[in-house]
Design brief:
Shape: globular
Radius of gyration: 20 Å
Low-confidence stretches: none
Distance between the termini: 25 Å
Largest sheet: 4 strands, mixed
Oligomer: single chain
Structural class: alpha+beta
Helix content: 55-70%
Mean pLDDT: 92
C-alpha cells in the first residue's frame, strides 16, 4: 500500500501538524483566557484578539498560494479550529476563512481579505430562503458572501446590521441582501453553486472540529473537578456515575477528531469520493457536544449551573454554535440525499 492510499485510513499527525497545533494552543492560552471570552459576550467579537490572530498568519495560511496565501491543508485548519473551540475564542475565524476560500475559488481574493484586515462572513445555512437571513458573524463583517438564487454575491452595508442576542454568544445579525448598500455578483450558475456547497462543507467541517476542542476542554474541566471533590471519603471521579459518562465524552472526542481529520483529507484530495463525511462531522458533533457539555455541568452540581462557572460558558456555546448553520437535521437530510445519489449511481 503506497503512502497516499495509507493516508486515507491514517489519522495521525505529522511533526509539523503537532507543532502547528501547539503554537495555536499556546496562543489562545496566553491571549484568550475565560475572562477575555466573558468580556466579549456583549458584542460576540474581540477585535484585539482578531488582529493578534491575523498577525500570527491564521487567515493567510488558509488561502491557496495562488491567492496570496500559504496553502494550508484542511487538516491544518481543523487543528486551528480545535483550539478556537477549546478556548471559546470570540473571533469569526471559521466564517472568514471559509468565505475567503470561496472568493478565491470564484476569482481573486483581495489582499486585505487574505490578511484578515477586511473581515468576510459566510451565510452557512443550507437551502437558505431568499430575503432576510441570520448570519453568524453578520454584525462585524465588512463583506458577507451568500447565495441569492443562482448567484453567489458579496454584500456590504454602510452601517453594519445590529447584533442579535443568541445562545452561542456569536456576532450574529439579521441580514437583508436587498437592503445592502453594495452588491457584487461573484459568480452564477451550477459551477458557482457547487463552489458554494464546498464552502458550506468546509464550514461544517471546521465548526465540527471546533466543537471537538470545546468538548475536550469541557471534559477536562469536569475531570479536574471530579478528582478534587470528595464524597464518603473518596473522589467522586471513582464513582461509576461520574467516571463512565466522562469516559463516554473521551470517546466522543476521539471519534469526532478522527472523523474530522478523515473528512478533511478526503475533501482536500478526493472531494467526490466521500462527500458525506464533512457534513457528517457537523451533525455528529452538534448532537454530541450538547450532551457532553450538559454532563460536564452536572458533574459539578450546583457550581456547574452558576453563571460564573466556566462549564456554563462551554454549555451555551455547545448548543449555540451547533445551530449557527441552521438545523443540523437539515444537514442530516442533505447527507441522506448525497449518499442516496451515490448509491443510485452504483
Amino acid at each position: 500500500m503506497d503512502r497516499y492510499e495509507l493516508r486515507r485510513l491514517d489519522y495521525s499527525l505529522t511533526e509539523d501538524h503537532q507543532a502547528l497545533q501547539a503554537a495555536y494552543k499556546d496562543f489562545f492560552a496566553n491571549h484568550c483566557p475565560i475572562e477575555t471570552v466573558r468580556a466579549a459576550e456583549e458584542s460576540g467579537f474581540d477585535k484585539n484578539l482578531w488582529e493578534r490572530l491575523c498577525a500570527m498568519g491564521a487567515t493567510t495560511m488558509a488561502l491557496p498560494e495562488s491567492a496570496g496565501g500559504d496553502g494550508a491543508t484542511l487538516v491544518d485548519l481543523t487543528l486551528v479550529a480545535e483550539e478556537i473551540g477549546r478556548s471559546l475564542a470570540p473571533v469569526p475565524w471559521i466564517d472568514h476563512v471559509c468565505a475567503a476560500r470561496l472568493i478565491a475559488r470564484l476569482g481573486t481574493a483581495d489582499p486585505d481579505v487574505v490578511s484578515g484586515t477586511t473581515l468576510v462572513a459566510l451565510d452557512p445555512v443550507q437551502d437558505q430562503s431568499d430575503g432576510l437571513r441570520l448570519v453568524p458573524s453578520g454584525s462585524v463583517a465588512d463583506q458577507i458572501v451568500l447565495r441569492d438564487g443562482d448567484d453567489i454575491v458579496s454584500v456590504s452595508f454602510g452601517t453594519r446590521p445590529a447584533r442579535v442576542d443568541n445562545l452561542g454568544k456569536l456576532p450574529m445579525a439579521w441580514v437583508d441582501p436587498a437592503a445592502a448598500d453594495q452588491r457584487t455578483v461573484l459568480a452564477s450558475g451550477p459551477e458557482a453553486i457547487a463552489h458554494y456547497q464546498r464552502a458550506l462543507d468546509e464550514w461544517r467541517l471546521l465548526t465540527g472540529a471546533a466543537l471537538v476542542g470545546l468538548v475536550e476542554e469541557t471534559m477536562t474541566i469536569a475531570a479536574e473537578f471530579s478528582k478534587t471533590r470528595y464524597t464518603l471519603g473518596v473522589p467522586i471521579s471513582t464513582l461509576q456515575a461520574i467516571s463512565h459518562p466522562l469516559a463516554n465524552i473521551a470517546i466522543t472526542v476521539a471519534g469526532g477528531r478522527n472523523l474530522a481529520r478523515r473528512a478533511a483529507w478526503f475533501l482536500d484530495n478526493e472531494p467526490d469520493e466521500r462527500p458525506e463525511l464533512a457534513p457528517s462531522v457537523f451533525v455528529f458533533m452538534a448532537e454530541e457536544a450538547a450532551k457532553a457539555a450538559t454532563m460536564a455541568v452536572h458533574v459539578q452540581g450546583g457550581l456547574g449551573v452558576s453563571a460564573e462557572a466556566a462549564a456554563t460558558a462551554y454549555l451555551v456555546r455547545a448548543r449555540g454554535w451547533a445551530v449557527a448553520g441552521g438545523d443540523p437535521g437539515a444537514t442530516a437530510k442533505h447527507i441522506a440525499r448525497v449518499v442516496g445519489a451515490r448509491e443510485g449511481r452504483s
